[in-house]
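Worked example 3 (structure in, sequence out).
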């Protein structure tokens, strides 16, 4: 592992599409790395990957409904996330970046590659939620349990201690779980609340199979190099297995498939070093 990126990120709130969208920026030089997180997570879940790139400019966005960004009421249609990020990339004049997206974030950066082609020179899609074409338009996922998530906590430390010995968190790197808990809560009253409210999280999942979330017609036009990291671990808990179309990489003109049999859908939390390795591979290629 390289030395830590000692530069502290700067938080900027960008007014875009009627929202306030939070962007964390690590200053540096060279080709920009732009990170998009998964449903219910936040930009700072990428810290342990970003620390592997000291001195390089990195940007990570809190998607609508997450982190420090605005939280409009449901529904959360998937097209909105791509439009948001494309607007932010334009405001920040991002061009030729490497786009790194996990789950929902993988779908988002793929959408941006078509909405604003100059944004990216390559993509790393980490177990992206881009399903097989025939699954779109089917009944939404039953995620009623998500709305029952515990939303209030005394502190990030309480959250960490509660989760660290539970699945799926016990598979995570402890430092990633610390980042998740520290930045995944917002102060409210005498305690803290989830930075991604359960109703919003549930809506994102429920909208994931809507026809408008289907990117397959656009994927052949994404001609930049694309690496797809896919999970192979089959756990008993929901969301532990991969939502990614197994043929996804072959659908991109310059796609490359990387199957990781021992890892679950939460690859960046379990193996940030592997994500960093694939980013370096793309940086060398472009």
């Amino acid at each position: 592992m390289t030395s830590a990126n000692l530069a502290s990120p700067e938080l900027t709130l960008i007014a875009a599409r009627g929202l306030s969208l939070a962007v964390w920026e690590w200053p540096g030089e060279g080709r920009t790395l732009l990170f998009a997180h998964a449903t219910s997570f936040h930009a700072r879940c990428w810290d342990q990957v970003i620390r592997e790139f000291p001195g390089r400019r990195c940007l990570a966005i809190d998607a609508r409904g997450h982190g420090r960004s605005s939280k409009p009421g449901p529904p959360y249609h998937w097209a909105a996330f791509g439009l948001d990020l494309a607007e932010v990339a334009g405001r920040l004049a991002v061009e030729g970046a490497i786009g790194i997206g996990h789950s929902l974030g993988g779908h988002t950066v793929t959408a941006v590659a078509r909405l604003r082609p100059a944004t990216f020179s390559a993509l790393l899609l980490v177990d992206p939620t881009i399903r097989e074409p025939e699954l779109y338009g089917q009944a939404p996922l039953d995620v009623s349990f998500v709305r029952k998530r515990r939303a209030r906590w005394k502190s990030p430390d309480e959250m960490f201690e509660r989760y660290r010995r539970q699945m799926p968190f016990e598979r995570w790197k402890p430092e990633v779980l610390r980042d998740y808990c520290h930045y995944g809560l917002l102060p409210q009253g005498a305690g803290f609340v989830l930075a991604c409210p359960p109703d919003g999280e549930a809506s994102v999942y429920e909208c994931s199979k809507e026809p408008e979330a289907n990117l397959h017609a656009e994927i052949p036009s994404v001609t930049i190099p694309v690496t797809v990291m896919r999970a192979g671990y089959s756990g008993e808990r929901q969301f532990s297995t991969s939502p990614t179309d197994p043929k996804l990489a072959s659908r991109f003109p310059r796609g490359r498939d990387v199957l990781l049999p021992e890892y679950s859908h939460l690859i960046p939390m379990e193996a940030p070093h592997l994500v960093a390795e694939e980013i370096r591979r793309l940086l060398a290629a472009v």
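Notes: Residues 84 and 209 are 20 Å apart (CA to CA). The two ends are 23 Å apart (CA to CA).
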